[in-house]
Write a structure and sequence with these properties.
CATH superfamily of the largest domain: P-loop containing nucleotide triphosphate hydrolases
CATH class of the largest domain: Alpha Beta
Number of domains: 3
Helix content: 25-40%
Bound molecules: thymidine-5'-diphosphate, magnesium ion
Number of helices: 11
Number of strands: 23
Oligomer: single chain
Largest sheet: 9 strands, mixed
Structural class: alpha/beta
């Protein structure tokens, strides 16, 4: 019996230390170190035994790059076009994909559905969170049947690999990586060392057998992939599943992809019978209304590769307390403060005595800075209590000196606005050059400064 070995791990980034420290030297988090039992070497040999999977791994040796044969990576094309696109054209054989999202957002639902829809491949769904009964009930709710779909409710990787060896599935979904435990490590499931070890075993498996593996992982409220954060560099692809639980829309975003672009995104709608892809997101994110109200503006943004028109709503009211409130949903609070400062300094608007509330329709979070212009116009519209024309939309970034800066792929934005029946779009005058020859039916107004825009609108 060997001596019990322990080490301290940072729960936020996985940094390992032999003694306890108050502040992580790697990610600068305070108070994040927890002692975990590790006892790896002793059982290493037993791992080697049951790790001989389907075939012998190929012999590795040094090679000149030009001798490496370029091969087209085989992919499994699923019925879910959003997932295919987000992954860069289907699931790559032998890839390991981390799917992160907050609890209750619909990860299990989405991947059960995707697994059940792959009819011609053997899919194994490993659940450490739910019983067979629960999963069956959910599958019934989704209304999907599949003879090639197998369930395994187990948390020990040793047993999981034994079952895998018997079944030989061609796709594996693990729900969730935090519930797995490897017998090689003594610390409890969900701890950094367990997560890392289990993922490493599954990664070895994926590479050796060319089987794609999905790892579902929970993230904490502050958005970091707690625990699974340590996996980000190990896996081939990191997908983030996000959205507001109180709304029906969910976004699947690529944070990292070794086999495709990271600028991709899929939009889903959560219904009574599972997730369905949203084909025309812009139409849904703009609320159709009869009367004109102040404080709303439409932004022509691009999320991933897709143009997306989003409604921005602002409410500016007289502040009752000494410190004015700033509340945002779907938008960065600091960005809002910056825009307010620009308006205060460059336009002379006294937002310092006003409460400001900002909301993006549909519970969607936008990262594209081109939404600035619409946010600014929504703020001004509410400040002045003057509604903006309904057939007007905006695309532009705001600089610190109050200039309207150019945005990328402006034609795509204009085309989307035109498609949805907008009559006029305001963009930066610095975009003019890049779109000189385009003939649009929609009126394209270019502007250089915020004060110019104010005079134009109000
Ligand atoms: P779930 O997939 O369990 O979330 P996660 O795995 O990310 O924790 O989904 C949780 C919610 O989804 C649950 O509150 C019920 C809801 N739901 C639907 O709205 N429609 C459905 O068809 C299903 C199966 C679930
Ligand atoms: Mg789940």
């Amino acid at each position: 019996m060997s001596k019990i070995k322990t080490a301290y791990f940072c729960q936020s980034c996985g940094y390992e230390s032999t003694k306890w420290v108050g502040k992580c030297p790697s990610c600068q988090q305070w108070n994040s170190f927890v002692e975990e039992l590790i006892q790896k070497d002793q059982k290493k040999n037993s791992l080697q035994e049951w790790k001989s999977y389907y075939q012998e791994g190929e012999v590795r040796k040094t090679l000149p790059l030009h001798e490496v044969q370029a091969q087209k990576v085989p992919r499994i094309i699923t019925k879910d076009h959003e997932l295919n696109r987000v992954l860069g054209g289907g699931i790559v054989q032998g890839s390991i994909i981390l799917v992160a999202g907050e609890p209750g957002i619909g990860k299990s639902t989405l991947f059960l559905q995707i697994g059940l829809e792959i009819k011609n491949e053997k899919v194994l769904y490993i659940s450490g969170e739910e019983s067979n009964q629960q999963i069956k009930m959910r599958a019934d709710r989704l209304g999907l049947k599949n003879e090639n779909f197998y369930l395994l409710t187990e948390t020990s990787t040793q047993i999981i690999f034994q079952e895998i060896k018997k079944l030989r599935p061609s796709l594996i979904i693990v729900d969730s990586i935090q519930t797995l435990a490897s017998p090689l490590i003594d610390s409890s499931p969900g701890s950094v060392s367990q997560i890392r070890e289990c993922a490493a075993e599954l990664q070895d498996f994926a590479k050796e057998t060319n089987t794609p593996v999905f790892l579902i992982g929970h993230i904490t409220k502050d958005g970091s992939i707690a625990g699974p954060k340590v996996l980000e560099h190990m896996v081939d692809t990191v997908l983030q599943f996000e959205g507001d639980r109180h709304y029906v829309y969910r976004i699947l975003r690529t944070l990292k992809n070794r086999f495709g672009s990271t600028a991709e995104l899929g939009i889903y709608q959560m219904g009574d019978t599972g997730m369905s892809p949203v084909l025309n997101p812009s139409e849904i994110l703009i609320t159709q209304k009869e009367e004109q109200l102040s404080g709303t503006a439409i932004a022509a943004t691009i999320e991933g590769q897709r143009p997306l028109l989003i409604e921005v709503q602002a409410l500016v009211t007289q502040s009752v307390y000494g410190t004015p409130q700033r509340t945002v949903s779907g938008f960065d609070l600091r960005r809002l403060q910056l825009l307010l400062a620009v308006l205060e300094k460059r336009g002379g608007f006294h937002f310092g005595v006003k409460d400001v509330f900002l909301n993006l329709a549909g519970g969607i979070k936008v990262e594209d800075p081109s939404i600035d212009l619409a946010v600014l116009c929504a703020l001004l519209s509410s400040f002045e209590d003057v509604p903006l024309p309904q057939d007007l939309c905006f695309a532009g970034e705001i600089g610190l000196s109050g200039e309207i800066r150019a945005v990328n792929r402006v034609e795509q934005r204009i085309a989307e606005a035109e498609k949805l029946g907008f009559q006029k779009i305001i963009v930066s005058k610095y975009n003019q050059k890049s779109m000189a020859k385009q003939g649009f039916n929609i009126e394209v107004v270019t502007m250089g400064r915020v004060d110019e825009l104010y005079r134009h609108l109000f």
